[in-house]
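User: Once you have settled down, look closely at the record that follows, taking as long as you need, and be ready to discuss the fold:
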Amino acid sequence: MAAPRHVPLSPTEEASTYRSPNVVPSSWVNRRPADLDSVQPSGGSLGHQGPDQGYALRLCRSFRERLHITEHEHLDDVERGCVQIALKRASIFGRAPVVYDLEMAYRIWGFLDASADAELLRERSRLFEGLSESHHYSEVRHLVAAVPIRTLKMSPSDLEEQYSTDWTSLLELS
């Protein structure tokens, strides 16, 4: 390190320079107890993992004025179910959720359609009932499983067209 001019230096002393340490530390290794040794687990009731999933909750706010919800449905139930469907779509593509994921989830179930089919209204009313309550996790997983991957891989315009011609082809209801 350089010293100011007023600090006396002896011409016979060796100048201070960098020297490597005698021991080189080993590289960092993942050995913490909760760290995963392999890829993120999937299957069963584990849901669909992806980055920045909480952003879908923020996106919900922009749809609240556009949703067509019957008097027997609750906004909290609708949002929880559709957010989970949107997260499934985002995880298929390995990215964070975007507005189109949520728009497609709402469209599949007719929440963006003021004149949705009566049969679809009955099905969604039954499937979305009580989803906002934490003890209904298995019902949420059942709802998400009703939307097949082939539907979620569609483009928003193709999905809208398919919804208008035959909404039942977008779902696997049993």
Observations:
- Residues 55-170 form one domain.
